[in-house]
Amino acid sequence: MAPKIRVRFAPSPTGPLHIGGIRTALFNYLYAKKQGGDFILRIEDTDQNRYVEGAEQYIIDSLEWCGLPFDEGPGKDGGFGPYRQSERKHLYRQYATELVEKGKAYYAFDTSDKLDFHRKEHEAKGKTFIYNWHNRLKLDNSLSMSPEALQERLDDGSDYVIRFLTPQDEKLFLKDRIRGLIEIDTNILDDKVLFKSDGMPTYHLANIVDDHLMQITHVIRGEEWLPSLALHQQLYDAFGWNAPNFAHLPLIMKPVGKGKLSKRDGEKMGFPIFPLSWNDSNGYREAGYFPEAVINFLALLGWNPGTEQEIFSMEELLNAFSLDRVNKSGARFDPDKTKWYNQYYLQQKDDSDLARMFGPILVDKAILPNLRKGEYVKSVVSLVKERATFVSDLWELSSYFFLAPSSYDDKAVRKQWKEDTPMLMDQLVSVLASIGNFSSENVETEVKSWIADRGLSFGKIMPPLRLVIVGAMKGPHLFDIMGLIGKEESTARINSAISTLGAHS
Ligand code: GLU
Question: What's the rounded Cα separation, in Å, for the pair 26 and 438?
Fold first, then answer.
């Protein structure tokens, strides 16, 4: 039987998650869940200098908001914990030492000043300093000193790091599910630090040890980690462990121009870059996006179903997703498309749900409780939602259902308010007064037959009527609006326009 699929999302708590991180989490989640596997959250916090307070909770909250629950992770032990690398600190040294004993790694005592000096010296000659086969024997490490000298250095407590001993003149063949076979010449690689002088492992060592101990079967992560694959594969080989399968996801690219999507692009073009707000940066949640819209647009950033289908629920994604349909090339981020998705999902919502979400905005606008009643708001929402992308658009689209116009669109007044309009509106008030059941249909029938009986044109009545009811030439079917705001309010608005606009022409 094939081992159970186990994938992990392994962010570093160095700040808020970029939505690219959520895309990585999503692809991991889909891959595992489609096959009944486990989705694990591991917090990679070995770099204490970059640790940011609150970032871990932010990651957890973001996954929850997006609907990507983890099976194992901080606070949810599945027998492979702890899931924070800082709490696994005691584990790593023995693995680094094991590699030294196997001749696959070595101690290096070079001070940072010394390394800086080498770097600068190389730079001055237009070269790059790489710590590897061609200079390691000239540097201050266990390969270039006698066993006695080494013992002395270790005994006197000198600071050291442990570096990987990259083999010379070898060809590596790395397998990636998305990119196929990648050939690498080991001579271009540097001897990466595995274990730091502060007693902490580097990302590379901790990542490999933990993926092994946590029995991870598939490593699905961003393309920016592809350059680390050569080292990671060599580390698995050096330990004699089976490596997991690797899949490096394509970068998410800027909406325009070259390069990968950054926080700056979001700031410049006015779209969120984080799932949830973080300090001054607005998140997708706070900007009014629905999590299902975010998931849907992220799924199509780098993956395609091979069909024209664009709308996917999580359920449908779980059925359709496969790593075989993940592209190699970068996926361009399209902020307009994210809005298109949100508009789509907003239209799918129940009017009562939308009314509930709209409620706080109405409170904020100081709308009186009798106008905030569920049924009324629900009817308003059903009339205007078609044009809404976000719940917050509903106010702009429907304020006149809650507040009588306090002014009238100038241009429309000039065009629609004729000399005889006040007189006609006055007559219309009497027509409306005689209507018993003030439903949209009844109002429409009565008003139309009055227009016909008087031999008037529609154009003489309907546009000024809309102007006085709404305040501008906009909105849904006018009789629907009148039916909803009711007889009293409709007549009050007409009367108040007659007195405000008077005989203006
Ligand atoms: N800690 C790395 C990150 O912040 C994890 C990379 C990986 O998945 O191996 O993205």
Answer: 51
